[in-house]
Amino acid sequence: MLQNTCIDTIELKIRCSDTTLQHLRLMTIENLIRNYNLIIKDRKYKNYMIKKVMHNKKVLTIKSCYDGENNEYYIHIRFAGLTNYRDEDNISFNLLIEITTLLKNKNIPFEIREIDIALDVYCNYKNVVMLCTKKTPKTKYYTLNEKQPFKTTRYLEKATRNSKIRSYTYCKTTKENLNKDITRNEIKFKRQCLKDCKTSNELIEVITKNINRYKVLYFRTLEEKQYLLNKLGTETSINKRVQKKYKIYRYELTFDIEYIEMFINELYIQNSKKVN
Q: What pTM was estimated for this model as a whole?
């Protein structure tokens, strides 16, 4: 089955020692963005400012903030839609590369604050299932046959304010109005999950460890899929014994960990300098 591992969203964090440095770095980033002839919409709040960069749709968001509790100034840059099938010029991805290159060239260190990693499968949404085979404590999960809030999206974890990871499968064909079948299986690594990762090695270790808690399964027929889900529904967990019992490996698709490592390492090259 044709499949593709991709990165869909990344949020960077740039620490600044004071408001002057924060402003200078913000202007440096904005000057680069203006070379793309994009629209920048500003909106000021009490302790922070949001800048939405538009090109028919939102391609990135910049948030400049002050954390009074920790006496810290910082900038967050969120790149959305890095892998989509409608935007031929892929501006969001190009800006990610341009901005991270700029930051590295100017010795401005940054951290990856959030990242969404996906496995796109080129088939009908109904033929794919993602499972969590190693659940975490204090996290509530949907059961295999539990009713979901959306017709073409299946969540694994139930949403909570402090959740560290959110994973789901959805129909990319429906969302982007495509003329081909694509099903996306996405794992969202939130800031609570990555807050202690300061280097690419630490980040890759956390991501790899958590990706291995999930299984993406492809079924040639819906009868095969329903049969397995019914069997798994009788088990208290989907541990290694259960996986072997039902030969889950026959249906399994895997994330390309090497690609994920390469992508993250490329962003982090020459980005090891720490901020005081």
A: 0.90
